[in-house]
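Format notes (please read before filing issues)

Several people have asked whether sequences and structure tokens are stored in separate files. They are not. Every record keeps both together, in the order shown below: the sequence lines, then the token lines. Line labels are part of the format and must not be stripped during preprocessing.
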Amino acid sequence: MSEQPGHGRAGAPSTPGDGFSAITASPAPADGGDERGSDFGRFDWFAEPEGFGLARLPDGRAPDTRVPYSRPAPDSGPGGLGRSGRDWWRPGLERPGPERDGGHSRWLRGGRLAIAATALAIVCTLLGGVIGGFVALQGHGGQPDSSYSVGPVPPALTYRPASSVAGIAARDTPAVVMIKVDGSEGTGSGFLINGGYIVTDNHVVTLDGFVQGASLRVYFSNGTSAKGVLIGRDPYSDIAVIKAVGLTNLPALSLGNSAGVAVGDPVIAIGSPLGLAGTVTSGIVSAVNRPVQPGAGAGSSPQVFFDAIQTDAPINPGNSGGPLVNARGQVIGVDAAIDTLGSDPMTGAQGGSIGLGFAIPVDQARRVVQELVRTGHATHSVIGASLNENFAGNGAQIATGKHRSVVPRGPAAQAGLQSGDVVIQIGSQPVTSAYALLDAIRSLAPGSRVAVTFIRQSQTHQANITLGSASS
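Then the structure lines:
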């Protein structure tokens, strides 16, 4: 209920001088006719200037619409506004006199008719929509259409270009295997090369260095499996070679040249992530010569260092040991590591691919594989000096202290390097830390001759060093 000034209550007379009149319910006519007050008169919803209504002249004629009506003088009788000085023009309306108590009733009756008409229009609109929808449903969706067809089936695509991902996968996947270690304790991948040998990672056959002499089972893409035997492994390069017992005439992948790999080259990773054999993913080479240390070796395994091929091709746990191939289907890397956002702290589950995968360059793997097949062990390069792992500056500092840090007559000594020297470049590759220098050295073959740039007492020097060899 409104309590604004000028609003009255139902049945209360208007207050002289307030300028507004509340709509009130009119009493029923004494003659019992059908002229009665509207129910709307019971509620004070709004007010209008007095005299606003559908009034008629006393003889029943419509008022003259050309004549204005005026507010009554201050001494007007009941119902007067009590103000003067302005005329209000309402075309077609005349201010009813006090004796016309049915004016408001008729106005309210007209309001009821307008509301009823509006409601009827809304109902008709809704009803029309319902009927129209029913007709449309009956005409289109209510009955099955026996002649409908989604279109003809196109011919099956049977040809894929040899250089497409599908073409490369079709050729290379038969030579990729899944390796199960100690039953189902661990699963990794591998690939066949000439002679029926299978290349994989050392951390696959040793379950990350926790076991030695584990039983191996090799699963092929055609559904067959065979016992696997270890030919040799190198914990320093993370390469291992195994062979399937009793099988011959096996397919083999071609080894490419990782020295020619460039950032942006398309690559494909094939393997058994999470035990899903024959999984193929694709991407590009994201970086080359990326220094990688997959983590401190477990058990008796040493720390692994290598300059990796980085790729965004999805690689996940179980892909380790699988091939990373180029657009020709040639192996350019051995999948070895991924970088993740960490394991789930609640379940301990290992994180998956975030587009940061790393492969051992095939040029490094080729040399190690050949040594393992020929001799059962491999060698790796050494510099003949100890490095300061706590050096906070840029580069790799040769350790200082009481203990001899440069091996006499070793590679570093013969190149003229001394304790305290800081190596900042090897070959064309910048060196930012001791780990980066070890990555670069391990990626080179023993006996390689390479230029070394170092700083001694704020002076830059350069020397050539011939890398030494150590057995794995």
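For reference, the curators noted about this record: The chain has three domains: 1-130, 165-342+349-375, 379-471. The mean pLDDT is 79.
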